[in-house]
Specification:
alpha+beta, 6-stranded antiparallel β-sheet, 29 helices, about 40% helix, 17 strands, about 625 residues
Length: about 625
């Protein structure tokens, strides 16, 4: 993991950069890595790298570096999880080679297409002196950030928005569209940041500057997986197990043989932690679990996972339990905002902070997290829509009955028929109209009501919703495979991983997300829908694959906890009048927000504890984080 930056003269004149300008870039960039800091200028380009050592190979890195064959300069924020495969394909004899040196050899063989061969998180900048061509790459899943700005005759590219702002001579206006998106979706558009003229290089994209032309193009799209034929196998669970173990093994590289893993007791974290133990030969493995103290009744019942944490324990790793009390997203907001370039929007992100602090105290630099294995593996419930679309109603009713039985619901054939068949026949724009008319106090009926009437005049609501995601989100797609792909492709996952990563970096820890591995995603998407949900049991292949590694108690667990209690409590107990006054004095938010609606509907619902069936609590927190960020920008 690293912070990388590049200043490039678009006129190709030799670059001149003062030591004070270098410091302006390096200071915020060093948040991402303090182990080795270096900058290098040659010709029209100046590159800087702040390295965080997260693997043994990182200790050998010396970036930026200049090479003669090919004639390039390179910096990279990368962890290659398919190193062995690349070393074999490139016929590299030195297996202790650094990741950046592998990239140089890959570029020599495959040119710009080398990025299609990489698996793992990466942000890479290469300048080819022979071709007079600058290239910037981001990985297929958006696991490493990269931002850019064009200023007069310069292109500035960086892992950090703040380093771009600090090194620029211009002032950047707040991007009000991104604030609107934050209140609607939390995440933003593919290239949007909270500042006008500073852009994010979208995931799976390549930025090039050649022959006086700046070009951005996509080199990979998850939707392309739809074209691949369904995976055919006699034993899908065996195939899943093989790939999952390969992914975990590839993410076990560390500089000091210490690895830490989250362990909530759920299927995802239990599978990662127990697989680490299963594969381990000479690493020191630690698991970290959170205990939410001070909760009673239903709140405690929803949050308490202790029995599953215990059952997932193993003598081959050291278990740690952290008790949380009197904390939440608001009480940690001031600390978190210090290392965020944007609002701290993840309402439950605070829960990672004590785990990363503990990881640091244990001397570990690597933390594996089961972030959204649900979406990647898929619960398989989309099979119900598939049955309805194929008019296989007997299969639809029987499968729904099995699900209801497992979860203790009362079967209702009419409700099943209406949800999975009749409602899907309604055209999207009519469906939206009906939802906004008859579900005024819930999504999507209340989505846009938070905005000032003058703002709403400029927004075509249905089209805005559809354009943001590229599809209408309240209807099933054309088939189960498309539904699965678009669920993984949702921008919220990229945004969420970026936010969690910042909490990890603040504690000198590299966070890794095993489920967001291209090998695993490609397999899960290719599995026939009939195999994903068996007899009503969700993620059936995953559960079968982990037999013999994960204890039966954890494999059989169908539900999961809800850790929102602390966030709910903090938001309910803030000084509501004081916050309303603060909003009124915020020159940006008071012209975007309908303050009357906020006070009479959102604030009232939160005060009255009436938010279980709407999104008011989440939007309230979004406003709190936005307001705090904007105030601190002053």
């Amino acid at each position: 993991m690293s912070g990388i930056a590049c200043i490039f003269n678009l006129d190709l004149e030799d670059i001149e950069i003062s030591s004070s300008d270098v410091k302006k870039i390096l200071k915020p960039l060093s948040f991402r890595g303090k182990d080795k800091i270096k900058y290098l200028s040659k010709g029209p380009v100046s590159m800087m790298q702040c390295l965080f050592i997260a693997t043994k190979e990182d200790e050998l890195e010396d970036l930026p570096s200049v090479h003669k064959d090919p004639n390039i300069m390179i910096i990279s924020d990368v962890r290659l999880d398919n190193r062995d495969e690349l070393i074999k394909s490139l016929r590299i004899k030195n297996t202790a080679i650094t990741d950046s040196e592998i990239i140089v050899q890959a570029y020599k063989l495959w040119s710009v297409n080398f990025c299609k061969h990489l698996i793992g998180p990466f942000a890479i900048i290469i300048y080819d002196f022979s071709k007079k061509k600058l290239m910037c790459f981001r990985d297929q899943l958006g696991l490493r950030p990269l931002y850019y700005c064009v200023e007069k005759n310069k292109l500035i590219v960086s892992s950090s928005i703040k380093s771009i702002k600090d090194s620029s001579s211009q002032s950047f206006k707040i991007n009000e569209k991104r604030i609107i998106d934050n209140l609607l979706f939390v995440c933003g558009g593919k290239k949007d940041t909270f500042f006008e003229e500073i852009y994010k290089l979208p995931k799976a994209n390549l930025l090039t500057f050649e022959n006086s032309k700046l070009k951005i193009e996509e080199y990979f799209n998850l939707n392309d997986l739809y074209k691949k034929k369904a995976k055919q196998s006699k034993d899908y669970a065996k195939e899943f197990r093989k790939i999952f173990l390969e992914v975990i093994q590839s993410q076990m590289r560390s500089p000091n043989n210490k690895i830490t893993s989250a362990l909530s007791g759920g299927l995802d974290s239990s599978s990662i932690t127990r697989t680490l133990s299963y594969l381990n030969s000479n690493n020191e493995i630690h698991s970290i679990s959170l205990i939410f103290k001070g909760l009673e009744g239903k709140e405690k019942e929803k949050t308490d996972e202790f029995e599953y944490m215990e059952s997932a324990g193993d003598e081959n790793f050291i278990s740690h339990f952290i008790e949380l009390e009197n904390t939440g997203p608001i009480s940690t907001l001031e600390t978190s905002q210090k290392y965020y370039d944007f609002p701290v929007s993840a309402i439950n992100g605070y829960a990672h902070i004590p785990m990363f602090k503990k990881t640091n105290l244990l001397g570990s630099r690597v933390f594996l997290d089961g972030y959204d294995g649900d979406t990647v593996v898929s619960h398989g419930s989309e099979i119900l829509f598939d049955y309805a679309k194929k008019l296989q109603f007997s299969k639809l009713f029987e499968h729904r009955r099995k699900i209801d039985k497992l979860f203790g619901f009362t079967p209702n054939k009419w409700a099943t028929f209406k949800t999975y068949f009749l409602k899907q026949l309604i055209p999207s724009f009519i469906d939206y109209y009906l939802r906004t008319k008859y579900r005024k106090n819930n999504i999507p009926g209340n989505l846009f009501k938070i905005f000032h009437p003058e703002v709403l005049k400029k927004i075509k609501k249905f089209q805005y919703l559809k354009n943001f995601l590229g599809y209408y989100p309240f209807k099933f797609s054309k088939n189960a495979k498309t539904f699965h792909i678009r669920s993984i492709n949702h921008p919220i996952w990229e945004f969420g991983m970026e936010m969690i990563e910042l909490h990890a970096l603040a504690n000198d820890v590299e966070i890794r997300f095993p489920f967001f591995d291209l090998r695993l995603i490609e397999f899960c998407v290719s599995v026939p829908i009939e195999e994903k949900n068996k007899d009503g049991v969700n993620r059936a292949i995953f559960r079968k694959a982990m037999q013999g590694i994960v204890p039966k108690e954890n494999l059989d667990r169908l539900g999961k906890s809800n850790i929102a209690a602390f966030a709910d409590e903090e938001i309910k107990n803030i000084d509501h009048e004081k916050f309303l006054s603060s909003l009124k004095s915020n020159n940006i938010l008071n012209k975007l927000i309908d303050l009357e609606y906020f006070e009479k509907v959102i604030q009232k619902n939160v005060k009255d504890n009436n938010f279980s069936n709407n999104n008011d609590l989440g939007r309230y927190y979004s406003l709190i984080s936005l307001n705090f960020w904007l105030e601190n920008l002053k």
